[in-house]
Amino acid sequence: MKTYGQYCGLAKALDHVGDRWTLLIVRELLLGPRRYSEIRAALPGIASNLLADRLRDLVADEVISKSEDGSYELTEFGRELEDVIHALVRWGGRWMGERRESESFHAEWLAVALKALLPKFSKGRVQFETAEATLSLDRGEVRIASLEAPDAVVKGSPETILAVAAGHVPLSAVDVSGSHDVVAAIFPGRSPN
After folding, report:
1. How far is CA 63 from CA 25, 58, 136, in A?
2. Number of domains in the chain
3. Residue range 133-150, pLDDT digits in tens
4. Is residue 91 part of a domain?
5. Which domain holds residue 17?
């Protein structure tokens, strides 16, 4: 293991999760248990041997575990990285801008971003519909699933929904049906125009 050789909490954390691709693997596992092939498919550009190395290191550090069926999942210790990931999503959003053709995007990543960007304790039940995925916000909990009888439905591309959640574009950039009050409450400060 490479180390910074510093007696500092940040340096120690980076000794274990600071390598390239590591936090993106954690992002994938925040969505739930994943098999090796699913992680690899979600991370275009990662070499197979590098992914195997990163997974092995994360298991050795007890950040993730590998089940008997071959799937990987975050341990309780690894789940502690969720707030760190969310802070980095919010911090890195300033560089999002318009997506380049060379940049991959999976609609499931929207679940991680929405959890990072939206209020932790919303009272409503909102369904987000994109061509690629359906997500739900149910009293502050974001899932990749549809809701039965949501208070509101927000439709748009993942990029547009993300831009509204980040406050880069107005709420009018997405289609809203149902309770506009519930939607306005989860997108505070986003004007409708």
Report:
1. 11, 5, 27
2. 2
3. 999 998 778 999 999 999
4. no
5. 9-79
